[in-house]
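Work through this:
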Amino acid sequence: MQHPSPAPVDRASFVSAMRQVAASVTVVTTDGPMGRFGATVSAFASVSADPPSVLVCLHGQSRIAQAVAANGRFCVNILPEGSTDIADRFAGRHDGWITDRFSGIDCYGTPGTAPLIEGATGFACDLAQSVPSGSHLIVIGHVTSVFDAGTAPLAWRDGGYHRVVPKDAARCAAE
């Protein structure tokens, strides 16, 4: 028995509702035969602890998606609070006057490895699988190394940057 397809969701309603979902601000980086690239990405999640793996969603036609596929490796950098300039830089907001998004940004890693941005919590990955879905490419990576910066992440919600505040801290401030 075939179930009827649900009515399509209005794009504007979907986008409006998704703006209410808070997410850590991440920068995906890669380096290798196709070159060094980086982009701010909002869709990042853990896939499995066995084996350790994560996913990011990249616009399918973007340079970063093509570079990750060609280089076979990437690093997910979870930016710490106060890194709004780095987030804006890798989102392309400075591309009009800065030709190299990495210029002046302290990074770790040898040439050919995906850069870890100074101060970020990082998940270095080997590309395991890419799955096209709509306008995007779901990129799954096996985590090869982790750097836990131990810092609060920069968050994004409703078109702006936010701080993650522990519930107990908010309660204490109110008392």
Notes: The chain has four helices and twelve strands. The radius of gyration is 18 Å. The longest strand covers residues 121-133. Helices lie at 11-18, 63-71, 84-90, 167-174.
